[in-house]
Amino acid sequence: MDYDRLFCNLYSRTVAATHYASSHRNDCVNLYFYKTHCAGTQINAKTVGGAIMMPILKSLRLTLRPFILSDASDVAAMAGDYELYRTTLNLPYPYQESHATAWIEQHEAHLHEHGFYTWAIERAETSELVGCVSLGQNLKQHTAEIGYWIGKKYWNNGYGTEASKLAIDFAFKALCVNKVLGRFFAVNPASGKIMEKCGMHFEGILKESIFKDGTYHDIGFYGLLRSEWLKMDDHRKFVRVDLRKVNPHDVSALQYIEQKAFHEDIIRYGDRPDCPANESLESLSYKVQTYDYYGIYENDKLIGGADIRTSPDFTKCRLARIYLDPRYQDIGIGKKAMLELELLYKGVTHWSLDTPHQNVRNQHFYESIGYVHQYTKAMDEVLKLFEYEKIMDVS
After folding, report:
1. Which residues are within 8 A (CB) of 219 and not within 5 positions of it... i.e. 6 or more apart?
2. Average pLDDT of 377-393?
3. Separation between Cα atoms, residue 79 and residue 277, nearest integer Å
4. CA 36 from centroid of its chain's CA atoms
5. Segment 16-27 mean pLDDT
6. Which of 46, 82, 136, 164 has the fewest CB atoms lying closer than 10 Å?
7. End-to-end distance of the chain based on CA atoms, in angstroms?
8. Whether the Cβ atoms of residue 239 and residue 332 lie closer than 8 Å to each other
9. Which residues contact 153 (CB under 8 A, 6 or more apart)?
10. Any alpha helices (H) in 199-344, and if so which ranges?
11. Residue 46, by phi and psi: left (phi above 0), alpha (psi -120 to 50) or beta?
12. Cα–Cα distance measured from residue 276 to residue 262, given in angstroms and rounded to the nearest whole number
């Protein structure tokens, strides 16, 4: 089967521009590109026959495609507007068609060498070019910065927001970044509003950080974490859960996650020495080296842990502890991790665990995946533990 033909939905500069319009589904990024590149951190341009390939992104009203040289006159007409220049970080002024041509000619190299994506924003109905949206990656930090501009003639139509949402989704789905950043001139709050409408959160102002036209400008910053994006719309289907034995070098990071995950227990039951939030680094290190202690990863980021104790004959497993960074709760990761553990221990017939009596959410969760309450154990006047068991069908 020709998977490039079936899944790619990519635009190549070596293919006529008219070929791209009919070959893409709405509201998706291409599946082939996603499957090919999500496994790694560094994203290089997809190539076919040596030609640089770019993803086509589509929404109800817009198509994001690569720029082509015939766009230069339209780019110059829009980018040459002083109002646009005044509110953007990098556009020169005055802006000539030669600037546009040189800029477009750089896109392939920027994509291939730096993973920098630059899309033309085009109205789907009329094929009019209305602006630009870009993603620049920091491969080391696993972030991407979004940038955009819309021609003045097309302001107040929501095109900036719609195009930015497509680019942000692409950054998290295909590039698998941990964070998308955005910045804007503080004198142009409308740009910040676009980021806000995309779900990004205001992170602050960097005072007088850009010198332009003889004066210093304040720059506003917005950001969106992957953990936040996963909770938006139907994005939880893009959760990528992986279990690995904890590396001793990661124990300190795991302890920090454990403290955050169990902080509420201190509020409920008091600052007890046996509360997991109070576990020492030495105790956690011992468990990691002694037992089957798994790190729970989402998109290659450590977000939780699971402490497994097996019986001598390996037919029973005790889930001594499982926890997630609170930012990653309520999006299905806990369930995926539990099911993955059951697959790792296929011969186990009995699973058991306990949870505090006041933690109703945990009780509902365990019962939803097949655990049955067996009995209640009183630890003292304050704390009671509900004991749960799950019988596995290994036939």
Report:
1. 183, 184, 185, 186, 205, 206, 209, 210
2. 92
3. 55
4. 17
5. 31
6. 82
7. 37
8. yes
9. 78, 130
10. 226-229, 251-261, 263-269, 281-290, 333-344
11. beta
12. 6
Mean pLDDT confidence for 172-183? 95
The rounded percent of the chain whose pLDDT value lies above 90 is 73
pLDDT for res 34: 32
Q: Give the sheet arrangement for strand 301-310, strand by strand.
A: 241-245, 292-298, 301-310, 316-324, 350-356, 384-391, 372-378
What is the distance between the alpha carbons of residues 106 and 12, in angstroms, rounded to a whole number? 15
Distance CA 232, CA 227 (A): 9
pLDDT band at 234 (very low <50, low <70, confident <90, very high): confident
> Is residue 28's pLDDT more than 50?
no
- pLDDT score recorded for residue 381: 86
Size of the chain in residues: 395
Return the percent helix, strand and coil in the chain, to nearest 5.
Answer: 35, 30, 30
Using the predicted structure, report yes or no on whether residue 207 has a pLDDT greater than 80. yes
**Band of pLDDT at residue 135, cut at 50, 70 and 90:** very high
For residue 3, which phi and psi values (nearest 5 degrees)?
Answer: -70, -30
d(CA 55, CA 45) in angstroms, rounded, equals: 10
* 395: three-class secondary structure by DSSP: coil
pLDDT of residue 380: 87
| Model confidence at 31: pLDDT above 60 | no
* Dist. CA 296–CA 39, nearest whole Å: 17
Q: Which two tokens stand for residue 245?
A: 């034995």
Calpha distance 314→347 (Å, rounded): 7
Beta strands in 163-287 (DSSP E): 179-185, 201-212, 215-225, 241-245
What's the CA gap between 278 and 288, in Å, rounded? 16
Whether the Cβ atoms of residue 65 and residue 122 lie closer than 8 Å to each other: yes
Q: Which pLDDT does position 27 carry in this prediction?
A: 30
pLDDT per position as a tens digit, 247-264: 999 999 999 999 999 999
Measured distance CA(68)–CA(104) in Å, rounded = 7
Q: Which domains does the chain have, with CATH numbers?
A: 3-235 (3.40.630.30), 240-391 (3.40.630.30)
